[in-house]
Amino acid sequence: MKKRLFLYLVPAVSTLLFLLLQLFNPPIVNEMIESKTYDLRLRLRNALLRQPPSAGITVVEIDEKSIKEIGRWPWNRDVFAELLTKVSAQRPKVIGIDVMFIERETPERDKKLAEAITRAGNVVLATPFEVPEGEGTVNSPAPGEVPDSLWDSAFMEVRSQKGIKWKNFAVKATAVAPPLPELAAHAALGHVYSLPDMDGVQRWEILYLNYGDDCYPQFSLQIARIALGLPMKEMVLYGAAGIGLRDRFIPTDLHGRVGINYLGKEHSFPVVSAADLIKDRVAPDVLKNRIVLIGTSALGTYDQKVTPFSANMPGVEKNASVVENILKNNFIRKSPGVIELAAIILTGILLGLVLPRLKALWSSLLAAVFIGSYIAVCCYLLMYQNLWANLLYPVTNMFTIFTTLTAVRFFHEERKAREIRQMFSSYVSPKIVKELIDDPERAKLGGERRMVTVLFSDVIGFTSLSEKRQPEEVVSLLNEYFEEMADIIFKWDGTLDKFVGDEIMALWGAPVEQANHAELALRCAADMSVRLTRLQKTWEERGEHILEVGIGINSGEVLIGNIGAQGKKMDYTAIGDHVNLAARVEKLTRRYGVRILVTENTINSVSAAAGTAALPFEFREIESVKVKGKEKEIRVLELKVPG
Fold first, then answer.
1. How much is the pLDDT for 625?
2. Which pLDDT does position 433 carry in this prediction?
3. In the prediction, which pLDDT does 138 show?
4. Could you tell me if 340 and 394 are in contact, meaning their C-beta atoms sit under 8 angstroms apart?
5. What is the rounded distance in angstroms from the CA atom of residue 620 to the CA atom of residue 502?
6. What sections of 177-330 are H helices per DSSP?
7. How far is CA 598 from each of CA 516, 574, 582, 635, rounded to the nearest angstrom?
8. What CA–CA distance (Å, rounded) separates 237 from 249?
9. How far apart are CA 335 and CA 333, in angstroms?
10. I want to staple 363 with a disulfide (CB 3.0 to 4.6 A). Which of 92, 311, 358, 558 is the partner?
11. What is the pLDDT of residue 457?
């Protein structure tokens, strides 16, 4: 009862624990462990359903070749002005420059770049904001004075959600380093602050920051807005809910974050080297009507990001992925938790109720089906619905329930096997012990009625022998005799019930059921007789006393089980009239001067088991006798042993 209760308590405790983990979702678990399973699913998705590169976005990279040909980094503003002019000449939809222009060079060079930006008319400049550790909490230092150049790039319309103080959740900046005023005057500005997860991987993008009284869009969001031909007033911030872009809505979490749906590794987008553009080595319309992002990829420029697909993705390509996601509205959405909670509860209940009732193989298969099915569902949701469902908690709960129950059952079965081995190893052959351990249910240790065959063997004249011989000699002789007889009983798969003085009691048909229990007992008796004859010759040659025995065999229904004082002395034995009858028949061997007497019950049992087959034994009928204590006479026969 205690074991059964424990087997149900384990799933309940495990399920409750993982329900709490799912509800609170500790960041260290989510960002260090669960996120790794998410990365694997993304890679599996791209291996099976590789996404084609965007047809509308091109990345102009300042790569190793560009630095080698144009000159060391950072480049002068006049070089950037030339590059921007070359890009703008091909009439792209929008140009996003993922390079900081926050310090002055020379008035001439700064002016030259400002003029190039003005001529282009569709430029977005990256703007670095400073966010303190902890993503800019409510207690962050108050921001400084807001530069005039930022005003035109702030959200013009912000709508609050009823009942949600969304500014308490928004990521707050405390400082900003905007581009030079003359550069920002004719460009849109977008923040480039990003916060990787605890493991350093960039899985999220923050679409807006709160700075002072206003909120500012992310760099890629500004690029997408201009590519869609929307003015600032048609980009609406719904606090803690999402971003509206005219007729489309981009949902975010409470902090304004979205899950980046990367196409794959670096160079998933068409890439043009900045050096090739400057030196006119590209077709004149390669950037026409496209969204162009200019940024660095050379290792010395230190703008590499770690993503689920790569440890060396240029930041500009990360921003290109976000632009792609905005235009297609296919960001990765995080499950609100309903799927996971339902999975934890349902699988916890089902496994907790079913596994304790199943054998090891079937419980393993069931657990594997449950775990495999949930993993398949999570992979499907990510591959086809862009939905990130938590894999860790439901799967770990199922695995914990299975492994714990398996371990409990294993140790219980081990203990049960030790008990069976300890209980029966001195009673039965190793073969029977193994059968009992393999199938403990066959060893019904409680009392039960069972059809068995009982054999009693007793030394004739033992009392006079004990009086005439020294105790040491008698014990030595008996031990030699008992050892030989016990080996024979085990040879014929019998249960050695007990030694009582000079008497042996053995039985067949318990603890393991044996359909041919009577035949086994008769074969054992015949073998015992043959072995005794050999022993007698040995004793005669040694000049020792020669023992003679009588063997009585009877078959019938008996009560069998552990009998004795609980916790003190217990014996596995059989009791009942048919046991007593076998003992009394053994005593009749002296009256008729035979070694083995068998009752008609055993003969009938052998005949029933053999069917029409010829009996493998020869009997000589003695007579029908009335055994002491019995009213009805019973036929007894001598089992004749050749030789």
1. 78
2. 53
3. 43
4. yes
5. 27
6. 181-184, 219-227, 274-278, 315-328
7. 16, 18, 8, 9
8. 10
9. 6
10. 358
11. 92
Which of 537, 562, 22, 53 has its CA nearest to residue 267? 53
**What residues of the chain score a pLDDT lower than 70?**
1-4, 55, 134-144, 412-447, 562-571, 610-615, 627-630, 643
pLDDT value at position 51?
75
For residue 414, the model assigns a pLDDT of: 55
Best CA proximity match to 396, nearest among 429, 347, 362: 347
On the CB side of 352, CA atoms within 13 Å amount to 19
Residue 171's pLDDT is 94
Copy the structure tokens of residue 364.
Answer: 């393993």
For residue 511, cis peptide bond before it (omega within 30 degrees of 0)? yes
Decide if 520 contacts 492 (C-beta within 8 A).
yes
3-state secondary structure of 458: strand
Tokens standing for 332?
A: 């990765």
- Rounded distance between C-alpha atoms, residue 72 and residue 397, angstroms: 55
| Residue owning tokens 């068998």 | 598
Phi first, then psi: give them for residue 154, nearest 5 degrees: -80, 155
Among the residues of 212-337, which ranges form H helices?
219-227, 274-278, 315-328
* Alpha carbon distance 373, 369 (integer Å): 6
For residue 511, what pLDDT is reported? 78
Model pLDDT, residue 365 = 95
Both structure tokens of 234 = 């048609």
Task: Compute CA 292 distance to the chain's CA centroid, rounded to the nearest angstrom.
Answer: 45
Beta bridge partners of 388: 334
Q: What is the pTM of this model?
A: 0.70
Helix (H) or strand (E) holding 111: helix 107-120
Tokens for 382?
């990510």
**Measured in Å, how far apart are the chain's first and last C-alpha atoms?**
57
CB 453 within 8 A of CB 603: no
Predicted confidence at residue 431, as pLDDT, reads 53
DSSP character at residue 51: P
Check residue 117 and give its pLDDT.
97
- CA 564 – CA 9 distance, rounded (Å): 34
Nearest to 296 by CA among 308, 286, 305: 305
Burial class (CB in 10 A: 0-12, 13-18, 19+), 593: exposed
Smallest CA-to-CA distance from 454 within 583, 262, 304, 276 is with: 583
Dist CA 405 CA 363 (whole Å): 10
Q: How far apart are CA 555 and CA 550, in angstroms?
A: 17
- The answer to whether 450 and 560 have CB atoms below 8 angstroms apart is yes
Alpha helices in 332-469 (DSSP H): 338-354, 360-385, 392-424, 430-438, 462-468
